[in-house]
Design goal:
284 residues; alpha/beta; Rossmann fold; ten-stranded mixed beta sheet; 8 helices; disordered N terminus
Length: 284
């Protein structure tokens, strides 16, 4: 496998089919190396697979999202599970003439969002009603793990997108230990543990904890790519990120050991041991 010592750039076909694929500048400096290889899902079309560290996934997400929106030439955009924290700021939306809708199952959470956003209350994991084939770009951040029926979730996103549209998801993955424990332990207990380990995680704030199921939340394995292929997507790019250091902030020695293990996994990646993932998908 080849090591890529550069930032992530959104290399993806432009929606303007008369132009070649754009070679985007490396504005998103992840600050780490990536291991790259190719995996072929059922379609036989290779997916660009990369690996990095979790710190870089979080610090680089906002810029990568914006570059991906611009690289695909998207104008109509829907963020799923936006709740109180929409990912795109109003000034970016206005500067690029975007039609941006934030969607969430909870009207209460949407009410916590800053003013000026178009909102839509809907459960994306239940059969869709109304708008279909409307959006160029649909994305989610820390939503996929909370969906009970992942197949319906992805089929609904497929239905929301126009032909050739792009879906982008950022989510935690099994079988990282914190998420395995979160899945197996009682919700009341994990709620209490998280409130002790991460300040600010309370229900009345903007970063409340919700039940997680982790259906279809995996690293870049062949089975995961085939699942996404089965509902009508081609995985253009899939990145797995190692480490979950945020859970060890109050345990410095454990955090140092954990970071060393994550760095070792980056050098010798195992897709089943990622902690987070980016998935860039194209509607076939």
């Amino acid at each position: 496998m080849q090591k890529l010592r550069r930032g992530w750039s959104p290399i993806i076909a432009s929606r303007n089919r008369t132009r070649p694929n754009p070679a985007m500048p490396n504005k998103v400096q992840m600050g780490t190396s990536f291991e790259q290889n190719k995996a072929e899902p059922a379609s036989g079309v290779p997916t660009r697979i990369e690996y990095g560290l979790t710190d870089d996934a979080w610090s680089g997400f906002d810029e990568y999202l914006k570059e991906l929106v611009l690289a695909t030439g998207s104008r109509t955009i829907c963020e799923l599970g936006a709740g109180a924290n929409p990912a795109l700021a109003p000034d970016f939306v206005q500067a690029h003439g975007l039609d941006y809708v934030i969607l969430d199952i909870s009207a209460e959470e949407l009410a916590k969002a800053p003013p000026g956003y178009r909102i839509r209350v809907q459960d994306i994991a239940k059969p869709l009603t109304g708008v279909r084939g409307t959006y160029d770009f649909v994305f989610s951040k820390m939503l996929a793990e909370h969906v009970k029926d992942a197949e319906v979730f992805h089929r609904n996103i497929h239905a929301l997108l126009r032909q050739g549209g792009t879906a982008f998801h950022f989510f935690p993955t099994l079988y990282a230990p914190p998420y395995a424990f979160n899945l197996l332990l009682p919700e009341r207990l994990t709620h209490w543990l998280l409130s002790r380990m991460q300040a600010g995680r309370h229900d009345s704030g903007k970063n409340a904890k919700f039940p997680a199921y982790y259906h279809w939340c995996r690293g870049p394995t062949r089975a995961q790519l085939d699942r996404l292929e089965s509902v009508g997507f081609r995985a253009v790019r899939y990145a797995g990120f190692f480490g979950h250091p945020g859970y060890y902030k109050k345990m410095p020695f454990a955090e140092r050991i954990h970071r060393a293990l994550a760095s070792s996994l980056l050098r010798h990646p195992v897709p089943w041991l990622t902690s987070f993932a980016y998935a860039v998908l194209e509607k076939k």
